[in-house]
Amino acid sequence: MNMATTLVMLIVSVMTSTLTTQISIQQEEKAAAERERMRANLLRAISHDLRTPLTSIYGACSVMLDNRDTLPEEKQLTLLGDMRKDADWLIRMVENLLSVTRIDEKKKMVSKVPTVLEELIDTVLVKFYKHYPDQPVEVSIPDEFVSIPMDAMLIEQVLINILENAVVHARGMTRVSLTVTVEAGRACFCISDDGCGIPAQRLNDLFTGYLDRDREVSDGQRTGMGIGLFVCAAIIRAHGSEIHACNLPQGGAAFSFALDMEESDEQ
Question: Which of 7, 10, 188, 203 would give a disulfide with 258, using CB separation of 3.0 to 4.6 Å?
Fold first, then answer.
């Protein structure tokens, strides 16, 4: 190999290395920008969704303090009940946010242990019925024993979030179902309802932590949909999968994700 050939190869090697470095830097900058965008969206959603219940609690306390001698007992009980509901909602919102902190930020992974599917679903339903005792859930799971490696507490949070979203947001809903099937070594979860469906313009934003508040009906009601679904997406990604949402042809919406039934070598 002569000197000229060696020089050419050296130049090509340097150029390739430089190009690879530039691509790597661009990818890292793009990833950093995406993380910042998601952080800003989540903070925006949090400030929006926490403002309404906090304002409601403050208003109810002010009415009771300013009219403590004249306010009828029935009205006082109503205000106290409303404050308890708002406080309970805030507690569950904080639990959602704390769930994300349990995910290893460096590895984007969670600690998985084998979890019996039937026990998981039973726990989810007990917690769900505590807040929505009048909303039945149609459940369909395999008859055979199914064990799935997962962080059970986090997956419970995902299922409860989606069920609660159906109750709160699926106007006109008469039924909600939770189905789990086993396909190709994966446990496939699906929660569906027969409500109003998801507005088409929101489908792309459901799991980003941000919904376009200008397009929402300004009815003074708390939502929490953006934060809750952002948390769901983060948890499922940490389990090595993705969560999806779609509108059903017959009406209503469906949320689905799948979990591997065996640990991969990478995990």
Answer: 188
